[in-house]
Amino acid sequence: MSMDLSFFESVDSAMEAETGRKEEILRIVREYDKTCRNLIAVLNRVHSVHSEEVPIIAQSVIDRIREVKQHLENLSQIVPYQQYYRYNDLWTRTVQSSLFIASFAFYLSTERLITTNEIESLFGVKINLQNDLQDFHISIEECLHGYVTLTSELSRLAINSVTAGDYDRPLKISKFVKELYSGFQLLNLRNDLLRKRFDGIKYNIKKIEEVVYDISLRKLSSSSKSDTVNFTGGEGDV
Fold it and tell me: Is the pLDDT of residue 235 over 50?
């Protein structure tokens, strides 16, 4: 009596299908990652241009987020329903990177934090706020990772803004990052990596505060100059 090998044949077929799906996902992720690198290269220009050019660069990146949206749509079409967590590790770092890009460009354009609704509109993907979605989505942890990276990039921008002669931007950055840090303090972070990265925000705040202190000491910002003018004018009236 010969052995029935149909079980092994079906397993082999399933394994081939799984391998093919992973290869296709990785192909999409490579293209997605390349797009992110290109957008970051564009955003890096804000560290070396005049302040009036910054929102123009930021808007150009926001306009190109549709490329990210297409990559995410391609991923959502290939990942089987209710198997999101089976493959999520293949693209989560790239998603975090794209969320940082969106939040940085959005801040440079509006000087405020991008909201979850705005992310969903730009990316065309739901954010899993209630941790109840089984189909393709963006996790809230991925959003938070993007926000943490944003604070690091803003601390760098605060320093480079002074070099470019923009003495008001570091003061605005300082206020924004401190408010963002206060929001993080309200969270009970259970993700070890995210908690460690959150601790790093304090060092970014310290870097920014050092820049702000130097600007204030030298009275370089417009607010410092206006204070001096008001004081001098008052003294003249007396």
Answer: no
